[in-house]
Description:
Helix content: 25-40%
Number of helices: 9
Radius of gyration: 39 Å
Shape: flat
Amino acid sequence: MSDPQQQPKIMAKVPSEVRAPPRTRCPLCTELFLAPKILPCLHTFCLPCLEQLEPFSVLGFQGDCSSDSSSDRSCLLRDLPQPLLSILCPVCDTEVDLPPGGIQELTTDYLALNEVLLETLQAQGHGVVCDLCVDGEAAKRCHTCKANLCHFCSQAHRRQRKTASHAVVDMEDLKGYNRIGKPILCLSHPSEELKLFCERCDRPVCRDCVVDKHRQHPYDFTSNVIHKHGDSMRELLKSTQQQVGALEEALHQVEGVGSTIRSHVEAVAAEIHAFADGYIQAIEEHRDRLLKQLDDLKVQKENLLHLQKAQLEQLLLDMRTGVEFTEHLLTNGSDLEILITKRVVASRLKRLIRVDYSVHPGGDDGIQFSPQEKAGQYHGYEVFGAVLNKAVDPAKCILQGEDLHHARQNQSASFTLLCNDALGEQMGRGGEFVKVTLVHKDKKDCAIKPAICDNGDGTYHVSYTPEVLGTYIVCVSVKGQHVQGSPFTLTVKNKFRKHQGVFHCCTFCSSGGQKAARCACGGTMPGGFQGCGHGHKGHPGSPHWSCCGRFVKHSECPGGPLGKTLQRSLLRTVAL
Length: 576
């Protein structure tokens, strides 16, 4: 296998006025990054700053020792299990899980390291140290080795036969470059550069790795696999960008509804003032009461919209952070930097895409004033006028139907949701966000997918077909809140058993006098007849089913006489 990266890359210069502002400073200490690490939420911080953060929660322990012997206990004392921790991101306040090895195992932001080096070069007295002696200040840079050299090491570099032909430039000449590539070395083999990518382990490796821990694993040079993995990240980026557009549109709608509510409130307030002027003291008191009610309604609706707006804004901020980070990585990152960061970026973007949110505003502008509505008497005066708010109140919504608590296996069942407002009056219109879940009480992975039909008059028909027997927990919510009586239990029984006999007064009549005909009621009559006859001993005294003896015509058959299994000879009953 030949290395396609044998030739050194020529670093292109870009005008300083079009160069993007560097992401070089830690949000916590505001200093240049020192060993920058990327959190799963795609925010970068200095390693020392992260080490000062307090753990948010302990998720568990890595490793276990179940034996109680003294040797095992000494093993535990020697090698205690390391706790799995999580921390809160200081920027977005997201709880992120740390790797088993802690903060040290977080992905290094090599792209930020490159930008720190560029900014250090552009500053007066750049202070970049020599990569070879680590003592002197770097004055030269070898493009072939990608190493910074002091004057002494630079002269030695030119004298050596292997490095005499390398391209060496002054550090001052690098200030206009958009990036300065520096070899990224393997953590397991510090003398080897990461040039290969292990497909099975999904991580960059060095030459020593492929003959050691990654032996017989499929691998290739990073430049050969960057196209496949880069395209997958671009697809995730595209999907995330679409979500950003939807969130922006949802926020615009929320703000529009809020503006409409405020304008409606102002209009209704003007109507209330005009109506109240004619009644002096009684009407003024009535007016004040109406205004307070209206203001409470405004606060209620705006609080609901504000909560939804805050949730959408936070989600939008998280998605923008992911988009900006990924775009910056794909635009400015090298092949190896993209591959190193790919896992944490893809994980974050997938999690953001899976977030469930509603693009419909949580509140409505259904506020009206009715001057003809009777409002009672104030100081002996009959007053009129009331604020009508036809907004659904989940606490007033009612569930109705015979199949509300009981259903049969593999048989369609249904119930009805009646939506009412805060006064208990039916809404009279549809369009509400109704959610119904049916989950098995003992089998959490067993759920029934219901069908919800909006009748357009404030009622919703919910139908479902259970396949598994048992008890289910049913949750019915409107606008994210449980309705009256929710959650409740639903019992699914076996399929309805039909009667196999006839509903008769006795076997003597229904069989036409057959002596061998028997009945599940157990009655007999003299004269050689084995079945029952009305008026004779053992007759139950009323019409009944010949297969089980039950008296109710429209009932379920238990499968035997009064719920017990019939003997084979007794099954010779009337079946006309």
